[in-house]
Amino acid sequence: MKIVSLLLSALLCTVTAQAAESVAGKVGYMSGTLVAQRTDGTVKVLVSKSEVQAGDMLITSKDSYAQVLMNDGAKVTLRPNSNLKIESFHFAKEKPEADNSVIRLLKGGFRAVTGLIGKRGDVDAYKVHAAAATIGIRGTDFSSRLCATKDCLDEDSATSKQPGKVVAPQSSVVGRVMLMQGELSAMEVSGKARKLYIGGPIYEGDKLLTGDKSYAVVAFRDESRISLQQNTVFLVEKFKYDKAAATENAVLRLLKGGIRVVTGLIGRVNHDNYQFHVANSTIGIRGTGFDTWCNGPCASEEKKSGATEEHPLDGAGVFVWAGEVALVSDCPKPGDCPMQVVGMQQAAIIARDTGKPVQIKLVPQSIINNDTPRPDSIPLDMDKVFGTQASAGEPGLYVTVHDGHVVLAQMDKSIDLGRGETGFSSVAGLTRLANTPAFMGGDMQINSRGGDSRSTNPSTNPSGCAVQ
Description:
By secondary structure, the protein is mostly beta strands. The chain folds into 2 domains: 24-164 and 393-467, Jelly Rolls (Sandwich), CATH 2.60.120.1440; 173-377, Jelly Rolls (Sandwich). The chain is built from 6 helices and 37 strands. It has an 18-stranded mixed β-sheet that branches.
């Protein structure tokens, strides 16, 4: 009897442990009806605090919303009429190398704020599958929606009845990395740093930094481009360009190192709309291509930080290879500031002894023979880089990033989506959208319930109901 009792106890412990391992999270906030179809074929009605298991197919009904709090801290909020399957989930605090989370969207949509899986080890440990696409997560907040009909009007809910042609404001991405070698990072206004890769987004307020023996080419929305040389610090202080709204304004600042510039549409009509600052001077553009630098005392903001004609790189200066610029020293009265016009194949510096711009009589070969790629040597397809609206509203998978970034992949192709961007996947391929469709951004229920764990469905049987 004692042996039988021990065997029963061991069996019970094993079953309990297996059940604990299958628990992926619990239900937080919910409104309406949420059911889980289990791997054993049973269907269970879920309420707030109900357990959600690996293998569950989560199903919301009409006008129902539900948030699932995963064990790794992730939050997944389901839209009405959605089917989301938790294909696998494994999270153990002491074993980050074993992390795994794979979910599949079969119908409807959801918004997710990611947890520890994918952040503390393998970035590919957390994936979302939908239709023929995969969403690779890089620590982020994103929404995903599978539309069976144009403008997602297949969903019988109030939010789906919004006019699909109405679009949200333009994406907050102002630039994108086109080419790079070595290390490139961005310091955000908040002080948060992020690594950048080819295709990575640039935002207003970003401070871009290149490492030793590194360079990068960045394209901006107005078709301008820059090449950052090694050990460079460059600030995108302001950048606004919306052709449709006739809005344009750019304030760029080189803090350290060197940069090569091809100007774009901003400033073509009104030159004052484009400001490029280097140390205590401004480069006024006339539709041009130029190199500029800020080294030595210039980069450290010391007094007498100008250059000399014998050592032009030990300070601030400019070399023009297309068009012309005006190098202007800062002064109390802008109209009276010393200015030097610099034509093609000419160079000028801020003189160390006077602080005024002067032309270099003999331009050194070290300035002329710059081995960092000229930015205009990189082909630029604006629709591919910044998106098109041609696919907006068509049936397929939509992914909008609210924070961080995701990689939307289909077969051997992929696009990197940053904050404020929307990607689209269909049988025709992948597309980056210039604007976010209204049906992706206008749902206040799913956008405002990030941390709400209250239930507004008190009439549901708290024990749930299981049927075979």
